[in-house]
Amino acid sequence: MENLDVARTLEELADLLEIQGANPFRIRAYRNAVNTVESLSRPLRDMVDAGEDLTELPAVGKEIAGHITELLTKGNLTRLDEVAAEFPRTLVELMRLDGVGPKKARKLFTELDVRTVDDLQAALEAGRVEALEGFGEKSAQKILHAIEEHRRHVGRFLLDDVEQLLAGVRAHMESAPGVKRLEVAGSLRRRKETIGDVDLLAECEGDGTDVVAHFVAFPGAARVEAAGGTKGNIVLPSGLSIDLRVIPHRSFGAALQYFSGSKEHNVAVRTHAVRQGLRVNEWGVFRVPDGVDPGTLGKEDGERLAGEDEAGVYAALGMAWVPPELRENRGEVEAALSGGLPRLVDVEDIRGDLQMHSTWSDGKVSVEEMALACRERGYEYMAITDHSQAMAMVQGLTPERARAQWQEIEDVRRSVEGIAILRSAEVDILKDGGLDLPDDILEGLDVVVVSVHSFMDQDKKTMTDRVLEAIRHPEVDVLAHPTGRLLNRREAFELDVEAVLEAAAELDVALELNANPNRLDLSDVHVHRAKELGVKVVVSTDAHSPRGLDYMRFGVDQARRGWLEARDVLNTMSLAELRTWLARRSA
Ligand code: DGT
Ligand code: CA
Ligand code: CA
Ligand code: ZN
User: Fold this and answer.
1) Shared domain check, 271 and 211
2) Going by fewer Cβ within 10 Å, which terminus of the chain is more open, N or C?
3) Is 156 in the pocket of ligand 1 (CB under 6 A)?
C-alpha cells in the first residue's frame, strides 16, 4: 500500500463520518492527517516496518497512527468497516458529485435507499429526487448534469497520482529476474493529463515467463487480471490497472512505438507506411514484397527494415523521431516527414516561477522560505502572488497588507541573494470584470496576475466579457488558470477561450499554463492555439509550499503537448528580458 492509498482510505473514512454526521472536529482531524500523508516524502510502509513512532508526524495522533499501522499491516481498516456497515462506502462517490453534500447523500440513502451513482440516476429519472424535501427540480437537474460529468471521468487518474502509485511497482520490478530494460508506454509516456491505464514494456533474458510471474506477484496488487507467458496485468487497490508486456530485443523499438500510441497517431503513421509499400506493426517495419497482398502476410513477413529501436522505426518510414507528447495526430506526422517538428521546451529552459503563495494568504511557508526553495531550484527569478482581498477566507491581501508585504519582500531580497523576488499578487477578477486591488497597488507590482475564483457559474457571454474586461486593464500581465477547471472534479467554466486568446494576442497579455497536476489549465489544445496566435504562455506552479514548486515539470509536459518551444514560454526569458517584457507598455 502506497502513501496515496493510505491517504485515500483515511479520506474515505472522513467522508463517511461526515455522512454519518459525526463530530466535525474528528472529521477535521482525519482530513488534516490526509494532508500530512499526502505530503510525506517517505513511504509510510518503511516507517512502520522500521517501528518508527507515527505520532511524531504532524496531525497524526495515537488513533490515526493506529489506523495507518493497521492499514499497512493488515490491508484493511476496522473503523472504516464499522462505519461502512451503517453507510455503504459507495455513498462517498455520491457525495463527490457537484450538488450533493454529505447531508444530501445521507438523505438520499435513508429516504430513497440510493446507494450508488446508478441508483441515484434511476431515482432522478423517476422524479423521486426532486420530490424530496431540500432538493427540488433545479437541484435535481444539477445533479443529473454532475452524473454525466462523473461518467466521463470515471476510471481516469491524474498524472501525479499515477507516478506515485507506480513507484512501488517500479521498485518491485528492479528485483525481477533478467530484466534488461523496462519502459513506460501509452498515455503516461505521452504525458497526457489523465491516464486510463499504465502500459509497461520489458525486454528480458529468456522468454519472460519469470518476469511476468514476478510482476503479478507484486505484493501491493489488489488482484491479478492476466498472467500469460508474455503478458501480465495487475490492478492496484486504487483501481489503477497496469499492463506488462515482454518484448523481444529485435522488436523493442517497434513495440514501444506501437504501445505508446496514440491510436490516432499510429493510424496516421500506418497509412503513410502503406503508401510507401511498407508495413509497420508492433514487431517492426517490413517491406511488402511486390505483387503480394499484405493481408496474407504473417506478422513478421517481408524484409525487416527496422524494429530494435524506435528512432529506427520512424527513420525507416522517412520520418524524424516524434516526441511522445506530440503523438496525437494533430499534424505531427506531416511535420516529421517535412522536417518541421518543433524543438520542444524543456524543464531545463525554465528560469523562474511566476505564481506561488506564501503565508500572507493560503501558502504554507514564508516569503523567505519560498525564496530559498526557488533559489535551490536554480531559478533566476520568482513572483510571490498571494491572493487579493476578495478571497477573505484565506486572508487575501488588502492594499495595506500588500504594502506591508512589499516591506517584507525588501528584507528577503537582502537576506536571500542570487534570485530576483518580484512583487506580485493573484488579483481576483471581480464579478463585473473589475480588479480586486486599486490601481496604485497594481502599479506598484512588478507582475500583475489576475484570475477568476468566484461566480464561476456565469453564462458564457457574461464570463467572457468579464475576463476580457479584466485583461484590458493596462496593468495586467498574466491571466492565471484561465478556465478554472479541476481535472476529474470540476469542469472549466463557460468561457470563449478563442476570444480571450485573440484579445490576449492583441493586448500582449500572457496566459498561464497552471502546472498543478489537478489543473493543467490551459489544456494542450488551447496552448497550441495560443502559440498559433502568438500569445505568450507562462508555465507557473501556483505552489502553496516548496514541494509544490516541483509541479513545474507537469506544466512543461503539457506545454510540450501544446507544441511549445522555449521562445513561446515567457518564463524561459532571462531576468533582463523578462523586465523588458514587463515594461512593454511604458516603452
Ligand atoms: P489510456 O490508457 O486510456 O490513458 O490511453 P492509452 O493511449 O495508453 O491507450 P491504451 O492503454 O488503450 O493503449 C496503449 C497504446 O496501444 C495506444 O495508445 C495505442 C496502442 N493500441 C492499443 N490498441 C490499439 C488499436 O486497436 N489500434 C492501434 N493502432 N493501436 C492500439
Ligand atoms: Ca494506457
Ligand atoms: Ca493499456
Ligand atoms: Zn488561483
Assistant:
1) no
2) C
3) no
Domain boundary (196, 212, 246) is at: 246
Mean pLDDT across the stretch 290-301? 86
Q: Are residues 105 and 166 in the same domain?
A: no
211-226 tens-digit pLDDT: 999 999 999 999 999 9
Residue 278 is assigned to a structural domain of this protein: yes
- Arithmetic mean of pLDDT over the chain: 95
Count other C-beta atoms under 10 Å from residue 461's C-beta: 11
Domain annotation covers residue 479: yes
| Rounded distance from Cα 98 to ligand 4 centre (Å) | 20
User: Cα 227 vs. chain centroid, distance in angstroms?
Assistant: 31
Count of beta carbons in the 10 Å neighbourhood of residue 83: 20
pLDDT in tens, 177-236: 999 999 999 999 999 999 999 999 999 988 889 999 999 999 999 999 999 889 999 999
The pLDDT of residue 41 is: 83
Are 145 and 164 found together in one domain?
no
Give yes or no: residues 480 and 507 share one domain: yes
DSSP string, 506-546: HHT-EEEEE--TTT-BS-HHHHHHHHHHT--EEEE--BSSG
CA-243 nearest atom, ligand 1: 11
H helix or E strand, kind and range, residue 538: strand 537-540
Whether residue 378 sits in one domain with residue 315: no
Phi, psi of 397, deg, nearest 5 = -70, 125
Q: Which of 122, 153, 184 is a domain's end point?
A: 153
If asked whether residues 405 and 276 sit together in one domain, one would say: no
pLDDT digits (tens, 9 = 90+) for 432-454: 999 999 999 999 999 999 999 99
Instruction: Among the bound ligands, name the one nearest to the CA of residue 391.
Output: 4
Ligand 3 midpoint to CA 198 (Å)? 6
pLDDT tens digit sequence for 314-349: 999 999 999 999 999 999 999 999 999 999 999 999
Ligand positioned closest to the Cα atom of 514: 4
**Nearest bound ligand to CA 264?**
1
In a domain, 324, yes or no: yes
Tell me the residue range of the domain where 172 lies.
Answer: 157-246
- Residue at 571 is within a domain: yes
Question: Is the CB–ligand 1 distance for residue 90 below 6 Å?
Answer: no
Number of domains in the chain: 4
DSSP 76: S
Residue 388, phi then psi, degrees to nearest 5:
-95, 175
Q: From the CA of 199, give the closest atom in ligand 1.
A: 11
Is the pLDDT confidence value at 154 over 80?
A: no
Closest atom of ligand 1 to CA, residue 262: 18
Buried b (16+ CB within 10 A) or exposed e, 271-287: ebbeeeebbbbbbbbbe
- Mean pLDDT for 535-560 is 98
